[in-house]
Amino acid sequence: MGRVSAAPPAPTWFGQPRGLTVLFLTNMWEQFSYYGMRALLVYYMTKQLMMGQAQASLIYGAYTACAYFTPILGGVIADRLLGKRRAIVLGGSIMALGHFMMAFEPLFYVALVTIALGNGLFLPSLPSQIDDLYTPGDPRVGWAYNVYYVGVNIGGFLAPLLCGTLGELYGWHYGFGAAGVGMVAGLGIYLWGQRYLPASARAAPARHAAPRGRFTREAALLLVAVALCVTVFRAAYEQVGNTVALWADSGVDRRAGDAIVPMTWFQSLNPLFVMAMTPPLLARWRRRAERGGAERPVRRMAVGALIVAGAYLLLAALAARGGASHWLWLALFFALLTVGELHILPTGLGLFARLAPAGMGATTVAAWYLATFAGSLAAGLVGTAWTALGHGAFFLLLAGLAALAAALLAAIDPASIAVIRVGERR
């Protein structure tokens, strides 16, 4: 009897399924468009449209909140009607249109609404395809979301440098137009890479599909509790593009020799640090897992929120002493913020995706963005206190919010252990 040969391993890029690279690059360019527009938004409103700081903060918070609320409906539409591929193509096309509309001042509010609507279809459908690339039990899936998160931050790193520079030096509308070009590039990569993606992503939902999975009561309660904690955390974290950006313009000495560093460039520090810090962090977590000491996801998130609280304490101390602070202090703030962010945000996204019942991947990932929606809305409201409180007290408030999120996550960590173990065995 002839020997039966084992099936050859699936081709990989960089040790991961090829489809992860496609999703990584698609996400990178989508995030380039989002962060390119966001880097300009608050400056555009206060310097070009001549809005007051409080009004600009509310609009900024409302926009970022809506960009993460629409995925709740978009995830359901993708899972039940369109399928993930159609949702991404349609959503990306609508977003590109909105970015190009931002180049025309009379269309400002219409453009914001258009981008938020397109984002609703696009955002939950992309990361919900990651788990489908791996067989059950594949250990690589645990790191896949951190790898995917690097794509977010490459786009976020390039966006302020390119879109921000165009906006500051040549006109805001050129920066917004460049963001639209980035979105088109992301769509092109996604369409090109279809053959590397799971068949489930390319197909529309069957008309008479098999019954969908359901959340256990324990899993649902855990995800709700985590989402509430992340909402509190986001109220502080989302100030990076809002009040922290304003402080970088007015409270930071931006001189580097004879040159002045453009204010939008500082928003590239966070994604730059993500790219630099992710590999050593993953290596550290992998070594710990190999020794049998893998860190629990919710506890890791609590540590991340506490580190972010420390980052805002640094800004509070700098602001309290008065005068302009050297830009290196701002760089240190972003380094601390990034370490905390890497502990909490990709870990939370991965937790929601891994606990998703069958047939509800995009919907469950969309629920993660509900926390981002609520946190962004809260951030806009918190940002209105920037002038009233004074900068030192305001940053102290943000440190308190991040510390509160850390305490709440630490409180629910013990109850999360059994729920996560059951979800990983499904």
Q: How would you portray this structure in words?
A:
- By secondary structure, the chain is an all-alpha fold.
- It has one domain (15-204, 215-425): MFS general substrate transporter like domains (Growth Hormone, Chain: A, Up-down Bundle), CATH 1.20.1250.20.
- It is 74% helix and 3% strand.
- It contains 15 helices and 6 strands.
- It has a two-stranded antiparallel ribbon.
- Strand 4 (255-256) and strand 5 form a beta hairpin.
- Helix 2 packs antiparallel against helix 3, helix 2 packs across helix 4 and helix 5 packs antiparallel against helix 6 (172-192).
- The chain starts with 11 loop residues before the first strand and ends with a helix.
- The model is unreliable at 1-9 (pLDDT under 50).
What would you say about this model in short?
74% of the residues lie in helices and 3% in strands.
Write the layout of secondary structure elements.
Layout: E1 12-13, E2 16-17, H1 18-48, H2 53-82, H3 84-101, H4 108-125, H5 141-170, H6 172-192, H7 199-202, H8 217-237, H9 243-250, E3 252-253, E4 255-256, E5 259-260, H10 269-290, H11 297-320, E6 325-326, H12 327-354, H13 361-383, H14 386-389, H15 391-425
Parallel strand pairs: 3-6
Antiparallel strand pairs: 1-2, 4-5
Helix pairs in contact: 1-2, 1-5, 1-6, 2-3, 2-4, 2-13, 3-4, 3-6, 5-6, 5-10, 5-12, 8-13, 8-15, 10-12, 11-12, 11-15, 12-13
InterPro entries: Dipep/tripep_permease, MFS_dom, MFS_trans_sf, MFS_Transporters, POT_fam, PTR2_symporter_CS
Organism: Sphingomonas citri
Transmembrane segments: 58-78, 108-126, 147-167, 173-192, 219-237, 264-282, 302-320, 326-353, 365-388, 394-420
